[in-house]
Amino acid sequence: MSTTPTTLAETWAEAQADAPIDPRATPAIQARRDFMAGALDCLLLQKAGATPEQLLAECVAFGNIVGTEQERAA
């Protein structure tokens, strides 16, 4: 990605290019790593100017599509 991410979705897309999955990590360990990376990304986005309301709205919007065809297509 050539620009600095401004949303969680953009941060996710950028992370996918840079973060290989460790085949030795258990699913629980990988989930914790992913969670902590997401928390860090959220804090960095806030530091860069994203508002808590913007990030919350993005999380709620994603939560609304969990388990749907729209989520699988993303």
What does this structure look like?
By secondary structure, the chain is mainly α. The protein has a domain at 50-74. It contains four helices and no strands. It has helices at residues 8-18, 27-47, 52-65, 69-73. The mean pLDDT is 88.
Compose a concise summary of this entry.
The protein has a domain of about 25 residues. The protein has 4 helices and no strands.
Number of strands: 0
Mean pLDDT: 88
* Main sheet specs: none
**Strand residues, percent:** under 5%
| Helix-strand string | HHHH
The percent range for helix content is 55-70%
Our count of helices gives 4
> For the terminal residues, how far apart are their CA atoms?
17 Å
Overall 3D form: globular
Q: Kindly provide the radius of gyration, computed on alpha-carbon positions and rounded to a whole number of angstroms.
A: 13 Å
> Which structural category fits the helices and strands?
mainly alpha
Uncertain regions: pLDDT < 50 for 5+ in a row? Answer: none
Core attributes:
globular; 4 helices
What topology emerges from the helices and strands here?
Blueprint (H helix, E strand, L loop, with lengths): L7 H11 L8 H21 L4 H14 L3 H5 L1
